[in-house]
Amino acid sequence: MLRGIDPIIGPDLLYTLRAMGHGDEIAIVDANFPALAMAKRLIRMDGHDAVTVADAILSLMPLDRFAADETAIRMEVVGDPEAVPPVCTLFQDVVDRRDPGYKVVKLERFAFYERAKQSFAIVATGERRLYGNIILKMGVIDP
């Protein structure tokens, strides 16, 4: 155990977050997402929901202030692009609390898959709520 680090963040996720650089992205995905087929690096966190994992990650990782419209991205609902699933509202709440001023934007399902494939890593959670997927872009910490 380490002080100041959420205990759900295991060594693989901690290593991955530390290895990421400015502009790298990490996808946090639900239990239905084809994570193994898409990931360059896969971290499994099956016992946790995606909102809790996003909160833990954002307790350590700054969001990219230079790409404000693409800093936090969720998957758009198929057939209802204006819908905002409750889990996505919770993602926005986490972003507002951890790194205020950023809006979680939507991305069409297959475009989201392509973006996730390009992510530095994918974190597969046990999230059961549909559309419980978010991509976060790493920012910088000023000196």
UniProtKB/TrEMBL annotation:
GO terms for molecular function: L-fucose mutarotase activity. Pfam families: RbsD_FucU (PF05025). InterPro entries: RbsD-like_sf, RbsD/FucU_mutarotase, RbsD_FucU. Keywords: Isomerase. The keyword Iron does not apply. It catalyses: beta-D-ribopyranose = beta-D-ribofuranose; alpha-L-fucose = beta-L-fucose. Its EC number is 5.1.3.29. It is an enzyme of class 5 (isomerase). Gene3D superfamilies: RbsD-like domain (3.40.1650.10). This is L-fucose mutarotase.
